[in-house]
Amino acid sequence: MNATRPAPGSQASLREANRERVLGVVRQHGPLTQVEIAAASGLSAATVSNMVKELDQAGLVGLSRSIRNGRRAVLVSLASGGGLLAGVAFGERDVRVAIASESREILAQQLMPLQADHVADDGMERAARLLADLAETVGAGVEDIGAIGFGLPAPVDSVSGQAGSDAVLPGWRGVNVAEAMAGHLRAPVVLDNTANLAALGELRAGALRGVQHGCYLKFSYGVGAGIVLGGEVFRGSAGTAGEIGHLTIDENGPICRCGNRGCLDTFVGSRALLSSLAASHGPLRLRDIITRALAGDLGCRRVIEDAGRRVGVAVAGLVNLFNPEVIVVGGKLAEAGDLIMVPLREALDRCAIPSAAATVELRPAELGDEADVLGAIELASVLSHARAAKPAETTV
Amino acid sequence: MTVTPTPATVGTGTVLSLRGVSKRFGAVQALKNIELDVRAGEVLALVGDNGAGKSTLVKTIAGVYTADDGSMVFDGAEVRVGSPAEAQQLGIATVFQDLALCDNLDVVANLYLGRELRNGKVLDEVEMERSSWELLRQLSAKIPSVRIPVASLSGGQRQTVAIARSLLGQPKVVMLDEPTAALGVAQTAEVLNLVERLRERGLAVILISHNMADVMAVADRVAVLRLGRNNGVFTVSETKSQDIIAAITGATDNAVSERAARRTRQEGSAS
Predict the structure, then answer these.
(1) A90 and A54: one domain?
(2) Contacts with A218 (C-beta within 8 Å, 6 or more apart), sequence order
(3) CB-based contact (8 Å) between B137 and chain A?
(4) B193 within domain boundaries
(5) Residues A363, A201, B195, A220: what is their CA dihedral angle, to the nearest 10 degrees?
(6) Among A69, A134, A291, whose Cβ lies nearest the Cβ of B186?
(7) For range B92-119, the mean pLDDT
(8) Is residue B125 domain-resident?
(9) Contact (CB, 8 A) for A333 and A304
(10) pLDDT tens digit string along A54-64?
(11) Whole-prediction pTM value?
(12) Touching check for B152 and chain A: CB below 8 Å?
């Protein structure tokens, strides 16, 4: 048998496949001992031992001491290659935290449900502790985190670094996140709106790849948009570009949280959707509306279709203004699929100028609810590179 | 035994209701006239101080204790639960704080302990392993292998296995006794996600917890027990956690605060 022959079915190709398998298992489950790798991959203990030795020499995995079942064991984890990047993306009711290697590959991530209307201190405390926990599971520590991308579902003032207009996300009003997070973790923090982050995520790795002029529509508890111009996320002069949720739809409409009247958010925000179903369906959550609509509940379907139509009208304005090639629809409500896409498209065709409407393509998001946190890691990566280029400013 | 998901039941109603349930241990009145309703597709948090009667109530529903007084209606019919096995057969599954897992057995053996699938006379290991994977996948559980001993799993993963086991009997109500106590943040997050997933499957979940942040994050309603009695049921979306804590500690209705309130009223009317 010739072990060096690289033909398919040969020992060398088998070895290559086994190597991939070991790496795949560690990637999926986080750090494991060799025995666990053997169990999860189905490879023999001897093979795993050889592979781990090889991967360690190649610098692809890191080994650390640990204890399992009261015995000493060696924990195998993916090599982080020095500095880690962290992404934190808040939603109205949850926070998703991820840790990535310097090459922006996600090593570990976790979603944590939060109380509605949580306060900033509580949210940041939990996020920081989650980050520390996750860093530990990839065999590193908090001090290895080089930069943190931080996303909030609210307008972010890029000049002052403060979160929130007064009324959107009230628990975070006027909080200087970068300063407050520095109290929990030492790494520098870059803050952005989650719609922008999701646009960035989809731009790098999802449905907006290669798109020059596009838009990410985040349709979740509120509505937001991340605008991509010339292949870059456009944030405007003070970071609040794309606040489509506060376009005025009806000048005599209900008062919005932002203090204006008849904003899009007052018609399609989660509060509006839930309160319109409160009488017939009792107290629901946003997810309940989607699952019930998909199961065929007429009331829930109607509410989602109406919301799609309203947003379509607003998006038509966006299409008229900057003539994008692609609009990606993401966020929680995008999970309703055609229930929302079809009325959105109809309203868009009806309200936008025909030539612009004809050229714009409506796509579902590819990254799902991970888009925000991937964007946050992109941003963290940019920040850590910028700091590496200017070492004089490393004091935080 | 199949592990197909229960479709999210549309048009949910009350699955379990307790009326006037009382329980006494000698001189101690542990529960007094407890009223409780649990609906399908809802997470009901049960909170209270130490000794408020939470665990006694759970054990009464689970059939460990029998109530001295009162009635229990499950799925529209009045039932008497004489033992934990009867409760399980009815469709009330309980995950106790100690999880009751066998550390030396692997995940599959733990899931099917006492109800092993058989193929003729031998155990059907293949089918058990396959459906274990299926169940854990439905719960999006992060378990590296179903063939490793439970001892080598983390606290959150063990909790996941215990909850998964409770689902094998196709229950309608799942009771979790302090599922996040003694867990790290990441593992707590895992368990909370799991609770949300149970809710999406249309199950009624009764969650006992001391952690207000966890309760407010996943619960729809919060039932407060105080000194063995009901002390209010709160809808989470309309309540602040301070109000619930006030109900737990009794800050809302004790003699001192009532007297103080009376005095300020009198002073207000006198001036």
Answers:
(1) no
(2) A194, A195, A198, A224, A225, A226, A330, A331
(3) no
(4) yes
(5) -50
(6) A134
(7) 87
(8) no
(9) yes
(10) 888 877 777 87
(11) 0.79
(12) yes
User: Which H helix or E strand runs over A67?
Assistant: strand A61-68
B168 confidence band (pLDDT: 50, 70, 90): confident
Record: contact B217-A115, CB cut-off 8 A:
yes
**Residue appearing with tokens 């010739």:** A2
Percentage of chain B beyond pLDDT 90 is: 31
> Which residue's structure tokens are 């197909």?
B4
Q: Is pLDDT of B161 > 70? A: yes
In a domain, A384, yes or no: no
**Among A35, A40, A130, whose Cβ lies nearest the Cβ of B189?**
A130
Backbone angles phi, psi at B172, to 5 degrees: -105, -25
CATH number of the CATH domain containing B42:
3.40.50.300
Please tell me the distance in Å from A141's CA to the nearest CA on chain B. Answer: 15
As given in the structure block, the two tokens for residue B53 are 């009667």
Closest partner CB to B189 (pick from A68, A111, A287): A111
DSSP reduced 3-state for A249: coil
Residue A106 reports pLDDT greater than 80: yes
Query: Which of B152, B189, B220 has the CB atom closest to A110's CB atom?
Result: B189
Domain hosting residue A153, numbered range: 84-196
**Residue A97 pLDDT > 90, yes or no?**
yes
Q: Which residue of A112, A118, A271 to mutate against B (max B Cβ within 10 Å)?
A: A112
Instruction: Check whether residue A278 and residue A151 sit in a common domain.
Output: no
ipTM of the complex: 0.76
Q: Which of residues 86-145 of A touch B (CB under 8 A)?
A: 93, 110-116, 122, 126, 129-130, 132-134, 137
Looking at A169, A196, A223, the residue that finishes a domain is: A196
**What is the number of structural domains in chain A?**
3
